[in-house]
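Lab channel / #folding
Pinned by the channel admin:
"Please post every new chain as: sequence first, then the structure tokens as a reply. Keep commentary short and put observations after the output so the thread stays searchable."

First post following the new format, from NK:
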Amino acid sequence: MKREAQDGQNVTSSHTGSHTGSLAGIHILSSLTPRELALLAVECRWRSLSRNEIILNQAQGDELDGVIFVVEGSVRLARSLGSAGRIAYTDIDAGGQFGEMAVFGVSETELMAVARDDGLIATLSESRFLDLLSREESVSRALLCQYARLLRAREVSSPPPDSEGQAGEGTGVQRVYRELLALAEPRRDANGVECLRIDRLPRHRILAARVDTTEEVVARAIAELVRSGVAARDYPGLVVTDEAAFRALCEGE
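Reply from TO:
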């Protein structure tokens, strides 16, 4: 079955057909010979994707049962960051993969994966992936190098120790906007235009408590977004129609 994410709702429709392709473009498999790639492709479960199709939603009981290679298109991963309601997004482009952390015992509990474009994915079972790593040193090395680059990128982008606490700085209005930005999810409106959307806006008192301000400041901040045309209310949510202007407001520009 195929579920599509449109305007905050899941729509169920039939998923037809399967497709087998090549794994030649997968980065961590680049050292394998064409014959090895062909044999590995036979062991994968292949799935064609439509734009906005929900690949996996653990909140609805779906299970991550292998490593998923993104052969064509791109996939957006959404992970919950705890009880505060924040969501972290990661885009996996063609050539990448996800799900391998579960193979190493780092389980995912609230992962959602959505196709950003029409595409093609291939899923390799956990046991077969572990066998591949133990047999092919080049694949293990490529995976380690990939993680090393990710760690280095995070170190470079992390604030220095003396800047701790900066996330809570700024005016009350700025903190409200930053919290709204953290809650917003990339979507497309009815005309296919990209926007940011919060499906259900938290109560003013909850937002105020999160960012250490008052309910009055929260109310004024949201009202100003709507008045200036940066956002529009779509009860019970909020749609940000001008992302650039919104991000500028978050930084006080």
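NK: The chain has two domains: 2-157, 170-250.
TO: also worth noting, Confidence is low (pLDDT under 50) at residues 6-18, 157-168.
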